[in-house]
Write a structure and sequence with these properties.
The complex is a heterotrimer of chains A (777), B (158) and C (282). Chain A is α+β, with helices and mostly antiparallel strands and 777 residues long. Chain A is 26% helix and 26% strand. An 8-stranded mixed β-sheet of chain A has the order 3-5-1-12-9-10-11-23. A 5-stranded mixed β-sheet of chain A has the order 7-16-15-14-8. Chain A has a 5-stranded mixed β-sheet with strand order 18-19-30-31-32, sandwiched between helices. In chain A, a hairpin with a 5-residue loop joins strand 30 and strand 31 (644-654). The radius of gyration of chain A is 27 Å and the shape is globular. The longest helix of chain B is centred in the last third of the chain and has 20 residues, at 138-157. Chain B is of the alpha+beta class and 158 residues long. In chain B, strands 2-1-5-3-4 form a 5-stranded mixed β-sheet, with helices on both faces. The termini of chain B are far apart. Helices cover 37% and strands 17% of the residues of chain B. With 282 residues, chain C is of the alpha+beta class. Chain C has 3 domains: 7-56, Uridine Diphospho-n-acetylenolpyruvylglucosamine Reductase, domain 2; 65-170, 2-Layer Sandwich (Uridine Diphospho-n-acetylenolpyruvylglucosamine Reductase, domain 3), CATH 3.30.465.10; 178-275, CO dehydrogenase flavoprotein, C-terminal domain (Enolase-like, domain 1, 2-Layer Sandwich), CATH 3.30.390. In chain C, a hairpin with a 2-residue loop joins strand 6 (134-139) and strand 7. Chain C starts with 6 loop residues before the first strand and ends with a helix. The chains are: A alpha+beta (777), B alpha+beta (158), C alpha+beta (282). At the A-B interface, helix 1 and helix 16 of A face helix 2, helix 3, helix 4 and helix 5 of B.
Amino acid sequence: MTIGDSIFRKEALEKVTGTAKYTDDYHSPAMLHAKLIVSPHAHAKIKSIDILEAQKAPGVRAVVTGQAEFPLTGEEIHDRPPIAFGKVRYHGEPVAAVIADTLQLAKKAAELVKVTYESLPVVNSPSEALSTSAPLVHENLGQYEKIQHVFPEPNTNIADRIKIRKGNMEIGWQESEVTVETNFSFGPSDHAAMETRCATAEIRPDGHILISSSSQSPYMIKKLMSEYFDLEAGKIIVTTPLVGGAYGGKVPTQLEIIAYLASKAVGGRPVKVFNEREEDMITSPVHIGLEATVKLGSTRDGKLKAAKLFYTFDSGAYSDKGATISRAAAVSCTGPYFIENIWCDSLCVYTNHPYATAYRGFSHSEVLFAFERTMDVLAEKLGMDPFELREKNAILPGHTTPTEVDLNSSNVGNLPECLRKLKELMKWDEGRFIKINDRKVRAKGISCIWKTSTIDTNASSGVILTYNPDGSLNLLSGLVEIGTGTKTVLAQILAEKMKMDVSQIHVRMEVDTQTMPEHWKTVASRGTYMAGRAVQQAADDLIRQLKDMASRVLVCSPDELEVGYGKVIVKDDPTKSCMIADIAYGHKYPNGNAIGGQIMANGKFMFKHMTHLDRETGSGKPGPEWTVGAQGIEIEFDTRDFTYRILKAYSVIDVGKVLNYKGALGQVMGAMSMGIGFAGREAFIFDRKGKVLNPQLRTYVPPHYGEHPEYIVEFVETPHIDAPHGARGIGEHGLIGMPAALANVLSNAAGINLNQLPLVPELIWKIKTQGVQNDSV
Amino acid sequence: MHTTEITLEVNGETRSVTVRNADTLLYVLRDKLGLTGAKPGCLNGDCGTCTIDVDGNPMKSCLMLAVEVQEAKITTVEGLKYSSLQTEFVDKFAFQCGYCTPGFIMNANALIKQYPHANDMLIKEWLESNICRCTGYKEIEEAVKSALATAQTVLRQQ
Amino acid sequence: MIPYDFAYFKASTAEEAVELYQSLREQGKQPVYYAGGTEIITLGRMKEVYTEAVIDIKGITECQTLQLEQNQLVMGAALPLTKLQEANLFPLLSQTISEIADHTARNKITLGGNLCGNIYYREAVLPLLIADTDVVIAGKSGRRRIPLNSIFDERPCLEDGELLTQLITQSDYLGLPYYSVKKRRQWDVGYPLITVTALKKEGKIRVSFSGVCLFPFRSERIEECLNDTRLNPDDRIERAIQHLPKPISNDVEGSPEYRLFVLKNTLLDVLQALEGETYAHN
C-alpha cells in the first residue's frame, strides 16, 4: 500500500516552518556555556596552563583542564584524553574549557587562559608515520586498554593492522600475464554537516545525568559514559532531537564527555558545549585520509588473478573509528570483483592530524578510489574497455568475497545488470572521449561500487508500538532522524504490515534513551534493515494481541481473524468485525465489565551469523549482505586550463527494493553530491607543522547550488530475503564510486594518471606539466 | 553603554529587547526572542543557514548586528505561513536533515517576490549563497522553479 | 559571537562621523567606521579585529548616493554591492562585483567596506583603478576629492579618521569595452585564485589584478608590455609578468607557480577579448 511510494517525511512540516528543533535550539536561562581553548600546535608538550586570570573573569563559574584522573576514552582503543593532558597531538585539540554564565563571557574569559607549549616534531602523513625515525604520537600505545579485536603495535604509530590472506599469491602472480601497480594518496577532509556538533549535560542531585546531544549514537554515549566514569547506566539519560546532518561525523562521543566534566565542575548545573564551525571542522573528528598501493595481475584477456593491496589510513591523533574503518576497508578491499588470490594489509596509523571517525561510505569511497582507478589503468594496459574488464570480473552469487563469505542470490545484488543499465544510460557506445573543439573535450568515466556493513556483531534494534484511543499507532524507535528519512520508512513498513494509512502512524522523532528501546547506532545504512525488522516483529506481536482480544468480542478463534483498515475482521464473514479503536484499550461490555487493557507491542532485531575476522587470514562474515552498483561521470574538460565541469553523474544501484522512491533518490543524489565534493575540491590543507590552514566553509568549500550536475539515477531490485521487503542499504552508496569515477574520467580526458585527491585543476596542471607521478605501471 | 534597548519589528510583531551592541541579529533572534528557525551554521557568512528577510532582501543574520536593524521589517521562517514555496519544498523532497531549509526558504522566498520571472542564472546567483549538505540540490532547484511557476501564474491572473 | 563589547553610534553626516571618530580615538576607543560590518563581525568573532566603538555610516546620505549626472557616476561608499550590481550603471564594476562573496552577503557588504577592509582581495577596487575613479574623503579639515590611484597603494591609504564617502567615475569610462574574470581553485564559489579586470581606452588596454599578490594592484609597466603590439601576445605576456609585484600569493587557493600559469592564460583571454582583430593578426 505504501511501500515504494514517495511518502512525505513525517517531520516535513516542522522542517519547512522552522519549528523543527535541534540540540542547540534548546536553551534555558539556567544553562551555563562552555568555551573550549584548543591547541594551535599539531604536536607539542603542554608546559603549563595558567587559568587564574580566567577564573577571576566576570561570569566564569569554572575552568576545566586535562587531569591525570580523567579516563582515557575511545571506542576500540582507550587512547584519547577528553581534554588534552601532558601533550597535544593535533591542531584543534581541546586543552581547557571555560564555563561561564553566557557564551560571550566564556569566550571572553577563554582568551585569558595562558597555555605554554613546547613544540614536538610532527607526523604529517601515514608514510611519515611508518618511517622508522618517526616520532611516536602515542608513547604508551602498549599500555592502553582496548577491545579484544584490535591490535595496536607498541612503539610504532600503528593502531591496528588487518590482514586478508586469500588463496595463494604465488599462483596468482604466475597466472597473471599482465600486472599494474599504482600508488594513491589523499589527506583528511570533513563531514561539514550544516549543524555543528553540540552537547549539553546536567547532573541532577539524585545522580541522574541528563545529556542531550546532536549524535548518531545516543545509546553508545550512555554505554561509554557509564564505562568511562563508572556510572550506573540507568542513571544516564541521553536525548537526541533532530540532527542536522551527520554522515558518520556524529558517531563519536566527544563533546558529551566535556559537557559532563564541565557540569561536574559547576556542581551539576546544566552546561552547553557548542562547536563553532572552526572547532567543528578540526577539534571534532574528521573524514579519514589514505595512502594506498594497489597491484593487480590478470590474464591477457582480463581475468583478474591476483590483488596485492596496501592501505594505510590516516586516523590522525586518535584511533576512534579508525581501526574499524581500516577493517571495513579490508573487507571490501578489491571492489566488487571475484579474485581468488588476495593479499591485503590495511593499517590504521596515528599522525598529528585531527582524528578521524566514520564518514559516509566508511572506507569504501576511499579504497574504491584506489582500486577502481587501478582497474582503469589495467584496462588501458590491456587495451580493453573499462566496462568489459569490470563485466568480466563482476562478483556473482557462487563467488567468495575477500573475507571468504559465500555469496548467494540473496546476499549480493546484481552487478552485471547495474553495469548493463549504466552503459546504456551513459550512451557509452558513442565514445568516452569526444572532441568538441580545439580546447574542449567531453569525456566519461565509471566506477563500480559495493558495500556491506561491519558493525558490532551483537548490535541490536528495538521498537515499541502503543495505541492511541482513536486506533492510531505510536512508533518508538531509538533510531536517530539524521536526515535520511528512515523513521518515515519505518512508518511505511508498519502501515503496510497493519494495512492502515501511514498518516495514522505517529513516529516519535526525538530519541530518549530512558523511554525508548535501543537502536545501536544510526549508522552503516542499517537503520531500515534493523529497525524495520524490529517493526515487523512488533507488528506481528500487535496483530496477535488484537486477534486475541477481538476473538473474545467476535466470539471466534483468533486464527479466524484478520487485521486491517482499522478493524479486526472475521475472515469468512467480513460483515462481522470490530474497530481497533474499540479494543486497543481493552474491551468494555455493556454491563461495565472490562477485559484486556491497553495493547502494546515490541519487536527486536539482531543480525545472525556475524563473526569477527580471523586475525591471520581475515576470513569471517562481517555483514549480512552487499549492495552493489555502478556509477559514472561525464565532464567537459578544458585542455588548455585543465578546468572542468561535471555535466552528468550517474548511479545504478541494486537496492533490493525501493521503499520510498523520492526518499531513496534523494539519498543517492545527496551522497553523489557529497562524493563529488570530496573528490573535486574538499580537503584540509596542512602546513609543514601539521596545522590546518582552511578550517572554514569559505576556504573549505562543499558543493554549492548551481555547481551540481544533472543526476541520472536508476535502481535495480534484487531482494535480500532477510531484509524488510528485500531492501538493501542505500544511505551511503551514492557517494562511494564518485571519487574513482571522477579520477577515471579526468585521467581519460587529460591523458594522464590522476591518483590523488582532491582533483583540482592545479593537480592536473602539476601532473600534466611536471609529470609528478610515482607509479610503475 | 555597551548594551542598548532596541525595538525590532519581527514577523509583524514589535519586540523590545535589551541587547549587547556586539550581539548579532542571529543571536538575538534565537536566544532573546526564541525564534530558532534561523540556524547557526558557520557564524561567518559562508553557509546561509541563518538567512532571514530584512525589508524584502535576504540577509545573513550572522552578518548583522541587532542594533543595526531597528527600523527594518524582519521576517524569519516562523513568519512565513504555509507559503507555496514551503509546500513545494515538502512536495519535491527538497530537504533531508532540514537544517539548511529555513535559510534556503527565506532566500528563495525573497527571490520569488523580487524576481518572479527569475531565469536559471539568477536562481543560481541567489541560491549559491546557501549550502545544503544532504541533497544534491536537484530537489531544491525543482521546488524553487515550481514555486516560481506558481508565482508567475498568480501574476498572469492578476 | 563577538566576545568583546563596543559602543554603537550612528552618524547622519560625514562631519558627525569624523568628529565622533576623533573624540572616540582620543578616549582610546579604537573606533572603526561601520558600513556593512561583515568583516568587523566575522573577524571580530576571532578577535582579528578589535574595537571599542563602531560608527555606523549607513545613515549618511552621501554615502548612499547612486547617481549618474553631469557625466559622472557617483557611488556612495555605504552602498551594498548588490545595489550597485543591479543598477548596472558601470557594467565592468557590476560584473566584477557579482563574483564577490555571494549574493546574500553582497546585500550587506558595501563598496567602501570591500575597498577598505582587511581581507586583501578588495576586488571591487579593480574596475575603479582602471577607470581613473576619484574618491571623496571626509576628514578633519573637510572634504577632498582626489584620484583613487593617487592614494591607492595595496589599499586606499587614508589618514587616521578619514572617511571614504564616495567614488566618482567619469561617464565616458562606463561604456568602454571591458573584460572581467575571476578564476578560483575549483568551480564557482570561493575566494579568487586570481581576478583580472580590464578596460580598453583609446586603443590601450588597462588591467588590474587581485589574488595574484597579497594586495590588488594596477601596474603601468605591465600595461605597457601588454600594449606593445609589435610583439605577439605570448611574448607580451611573458614580459608583462616580469613586472608583477613580489611575492606571488601562496595560500590554500593555489601555489605561486600555478597562479602564474592561470594568469598567463587569463591575460591571453584579455588580449583576445579586447584586441579582437589585432590579436588575430598576431
